[in-house]
Amino acid sequence: xxxxxxxxxxxxxxxxxxxxxxxxxxxxxxxxxxxxxxxxxxxxxxxxxxxxxxxxxxxxxxxxxxxxxxxxxxxxxxxxxxxxxxxxxxxxxxxxxxxxxxxxxxxxxxxxxxxxxxxxxxxxxxxxxxxxxxxxxxxxxxxxxxxxxxxxxxxxxxxxxxxxxxxxxxxxxxxxxxxxxxxxxxxxxxxxxxxxxxxxxxxxxxxxxxxxxxxxxxxxxxxxxxxxxxxxxxxxxxxxxxxxxxxxxxxxxxxxxxxxxxxxxxxxxxxxxxxxxxxxxxxxxxxxxxxxxxxxxxxxxxxxxxxxxxxxxxxxxxxxxxxxxxxxxxxxxxxxxxxxxxxxxxxxxxxxxxxxxxxxxxxxxxxxxxxxxxxxxxxxxxxxxxxxxxxxxxxxxxxxxxxxxxxxxxxxxxxxxxxxxxxxxxxxxxxxxxxxxxxxxxxxxxxxxxxxxxxxxxxxxxxxxxxxxxxxxxxxxxxxxxxxxxxxxxxxxxxxxxxxxxxxxxxxxxxxxxxxxxxxxxxxxxxxxxxxxxxxxxxxxxxxxxxxxxxxxxxxxxxxxxxxxxxxxxxxxxxxxxxxxxxxxxxxxxxxxxxxxxxxxxxxxxxxxxxxxxxxxxxxxxxxxxxx
Length: 628
Description:
The chain is of the alpha+beta class. It has five domains: 4-170, 3-Layer(aba) Sandwich (Rossmann fold); 183-263, Elongation Factor Tu (Ef-tu), domain 3 (Beta Barrel); 269-379, Translation factors (Elongation Factor Tu (Ef-tu), domain 3); 380-505, Arc Repressor Mutant, subunit A (Orthogonal Bundle); 511-625, Winged helix-like DNA-binding domain superfamily/Winged helix DNA-binding domain (Arc Repressor Mutant, subunit A), CATH 1.10.10. The chain is 33% helix and 29% strand. It is built from 19 helices and 34 strands. Helix 11 crosses helix 13, helix 14 (511-523) crosses helix 15 and helix 17 crosses helix 18. It starts with a strand and ends with a strand.
């Protein structure tokens, strides 16, 4: 059984003992920078493996607590499954603790544990009182019912209990989706001497294998996973929920930065306009006005943008969710359901958080109609969610649909029987609208190809796949092409695909000259000139001459005698009739020469052609007819 992978985040106010607790749990000091050692505060994200049992692979992220490093904090917690809120027994819940709580809530973290640190700094009899005070202050947050574990990281008191609590909490959390397309928001970029550029992050979804072809978004830089490491151990793959370092080929540190996203699929959306639903913090200090500047933290990226309302011009005391739009200054990578945080640049504060309704927002008018449309888009019926997922991904397995829609297995199975859903192969599905879209794309592609290549038998199937594979999976392409052939919309000739009504024809402006070339070739019978001489004699440009030769050869109307000479099929057929009529079961060079009245210059290539066509078989100085 494969290990389930999870990522735990450490959160809390500065100097409440997150890094020390991480070391107590993992035996790893995550403060690795010289400045962190000197100032005794965490500046960058720290990572460590936590070994509890053989069934789980757990990574711990120690996020900075200082307000100046809130960006790193958000980048760290964006991919976690469980959070440990560290609260010092001698200080209790502090302002930074509350901000971290708001951020965790906005990012959709469902489960947490409260670790009361530094219990050695309070009297033993006050520990229970401290627990009660902290529990009271956490009411109304995601930690309202969270287990509380008092610990002393230096003496290791309570660490075993905390590990057991972690195990219990993780057992109730569903593992991330390792079946879909790979996606990894990058939170660290660095260079390893002798290896090149390495990126690190938490795998949001999917699986990556060593050697996989990847794309860095939003720059669309193509790369390859040269090597994978999970906590400094080389691995051949990494799955959703795991922390992984990836050595990339053909990439410098100028090509990639924190906030970029590494993907294995062409189906992820790059956007600068998102339809969103947001909730504002309860104690908003300043008005948020229409088109206010905001910092949007999504995944591991931080991008400036504007918030656009459609039913108001400002927000101050708003407890309900608001549907609106975020228009960003730079492109980011996201999908429906992704969580984000909005912060005011100045004065610096967290103002809201929410999730993406539609990553490809449009331009809408201010008013009730737009708000109603966004609310409908937000809710989405189960079938809407199914069609949205299939429209976006084009092809999904049943397991992937369950993950993408967050619907129960039974609901998905019922939806898959809908007449608009097509089962491409066992438990792999698409929509009729997607198939229709692909029909149109293929027909347009072939139509344009026929217009510019009237002598070609059709477009190579591999070229169709290459042209359309950025938007449509190969399995779906094969399915639709076979369906179109069965329906008589297209036809297949060997490896070539053409519209059913298409017949190769000479381009009108060159038709007469092409006919003249073919007639000259036939008239010269067996004593042919070089192909270049025929082309020159007919006055055909090289491009058209090559097209004609390709067409005649692939239509089996022309045979290549040698590098410079060709011969028409009609001429060969006529020679065969004469040769068969005048010879027995076998013949030699003299027999052929007497029958065809040819010199060796023309005769030898002709007889070798007959061997190639498997019409004759040479044995010593004789050729034997191959019966057909």
